[in-house]
Amino acid sequence: MPSPHTHGHDVGERLFVHRHSVIHRLPAEVKTVAMVAFIFTVIMTPPNQFWAFALYAVILVGVAGLARIPARVILPRMLVEVPFVFFALLMPFFGTGPTVEVLGLSLSQAGLLAGWGILIKGTLGVVSSILLAATTPARDLLMGLERLKVPELLVQIASFMLRYTHVVSDEMHRMKLARESRGFTATGIRSWPIIAQSGGALFIRSYERGERVHLAMLSRGYTGRLPQLVTVTTTAADWFTAMSLPAVGLIIALTAIWAGR
Amino acid sequence: MTPSLRIAGLAFAYPDGYQALFGVNLEIAKGERVALLGPNGAGKTTLVLHMNGLLSGGVGTVEVAGLTVEKQNFPEIRRRVGVVFQDPDDQLFMPTVRDDVAFGPANMGLTGSDLAARVDEALEQVAMSEYADRPPHHLSFGQRRRVAVATVLAMHPEILVLDEPSSNLDPASRRELADILRGLDITLFMVTHDLPYALELCPRSVVLSEGVVVADGPTRDILLNDELMRANRLELPFGFDPRNVPA
Fold first, then answer.
1. Chain A, nearest residue to B105 by Cα
2. Measured between alpha carbons, how far is A156 from A142 in angstroms, rounded to an integer?
3. Nearest CA of chain B to the CA of A52: how many Å?
4. Is B23 within 8 Å of B9 (Cβ atoms)?
5. Interface predicted TM-score (ipTM) of this complex, two decimals
6. pLDDT tens per residue, range B82-120
7. Cβ contact, residue pair B102, A159, below 8 Å
8. Distance CA A81, CA A115 (A)
9. CATH node for B5-94+159-237
């Protein structure tokens, strides 16, 4: 029985924001390639060319506007970046070479620049990924990867993960309820063995489910390949539209490299 | 006419030495509906897994509509034998209902409009057409069980094999599934502990105990045979009397 807390909120759908826009309509593999290429142009850009990053940010805001994804969706999701921000913030303290005084702290100039580079490039990359995930259902992304000739086995593993995340998290939730209804409360380090054992039991259960799913697949003629069920036709116009993003990115990057010589 | 299923002298031991089947003989005619009864550990699931070659390596033979279950026949055997497993979450592994129902026929080589027609037809048979584009986990348990039935109906099987079809269903879903199963023009083999369900759907029952068939006859006669029932740990639910059920 599905418990209400997870109903309709599996990983794939939670990220996707349903809209009708040019960006949403583009085939998944086209968007994926465009996004990866765009991120590469951002990475190529020297960190001291501040104007270039401002332009990249404007472009992404434009994409978000076209896709009608509001800032209140994008901003909270950017929190995934926080651990990386932490490392970026440390760099000015551990960098070498000439230093500057900021608020009485002696900071490395090279470290400051490197930290800024990581921060801005990471942020732009994260926002690009958020936009891709918000405009493409997870399932389409996987099918797109398949069409991009990503090894089939990897795509299959990812798609099973998508399908069963919900089943396994439900099972985990039931185990938690069972623990707590017998008086268990997690209190610090002494409850770790219990939680670890539950984790082990969950692993065994999931493994056994995997075996049962495999039997069910064999019963319906599975021979190692998932059938290609949807035929998506990608037009030259789709590629042209999507690749305009990294094309503009490339022009900015090359200009920035030339200006920074 | 060739029977849908013929099992002769089937014996099987698991690699760890545990012997589950000790010479099973069983023949099911085309269009028959047969229930397989027996206590836990009688070898029912082991028997089912032999019917489409998921288990093999013992002695004896299994034939489905005249075709022997052996490796070179597996693709055709798995088309002919539609196994519906007990937990629909094991059976429904694709992202949407439609994709899942298409999985079997697509493996058989169907594509395009033929494939779509198969899917629509199968979903129609279990009254789930309007849920085609939903992910399986958004459905109720009863709906998932019905979709699981559709996934094998889409392969146009010779024989439909159901493992505990009524388990975990609320009474309404249980009855809806019975209506659907009764309406199918297909050979049906159903493993169950739900004896009233067996009586309702299957004119004939087979009792498996400790790896052999110990009884095979009209379901009503078997349920009324107290001695046989007791000897095989079969019990009717409280208050249920097969004599009160109209034939």
1. A220
2. 9
3. 41
4. yes
5. 0.83
6. 999 999 989 998 888 999 999 999 998 898 899 999 999
7. no
8. 14
9. 3.40.50.300
